[in-house]
Amino acid sequence: MRQPQVRCVEFVEQITEWLEGGLSDPERLLFEEHLAYCGPCGRYVDQFRATLRLLRDSDQPLGDAPPQPLRDSLLNAFRQQHR
């Protein structure tokens, strides 16, 4: 497999647009090619989605700092992904 054209730093910068369907077709294809090639970025997507789920399931308004139990839950989810 050839080296993807998108670097990890660019991948991270584009993840929100990708999840929201905001990338053009060529950008999306390059993004998804990188995702298929790069295991760490795949784990990052999993962590990002887990964070979004936790935030969605929280009854805390997004503009406020999360309560300590939610912060602990987020930190635990990140730690679990890195094992």
What do you see in this structure?
This protein has 83 residues and is an all-alpha fold. It is 70% helix and 0% strand. The protein has four helices and no strands. Helix 1 packs across helix 2 and helix 3 runs antiparallel to helix 4. The radius of gyration is 15 Å and the shape is elongated. The protein starts with 7 loop residues before the first helix and ends with a helix. The mean pLDDT is 80.
Q: Outline of this structure?
A:
With 83 residues, this protein is mainly α. It has helices at 8-19, 25-37, 39-57, 68-81.
Record the SSE blueprint.
Elements: H1 8-19, H2 25-37, H3 39-57, H4 68-81
Helix pairs in contact: 1-2, 3-4
Low-confidence stretches: none
Q: What is the SS-derived class?
A: mainly alpha
The residue fraction in helices comes out at 55-70%
Rg computed from alpha carbons, rounded to a whole number of angstroms: 15 Å
How much is the average pLDDT? 80
Q: What letter string, H or E per element, gives the SSE order?
A: HHHH
Oligomer: single chain
Sheet having the most strands: none
Please provide the count of β strands: 0
Shape: elongated
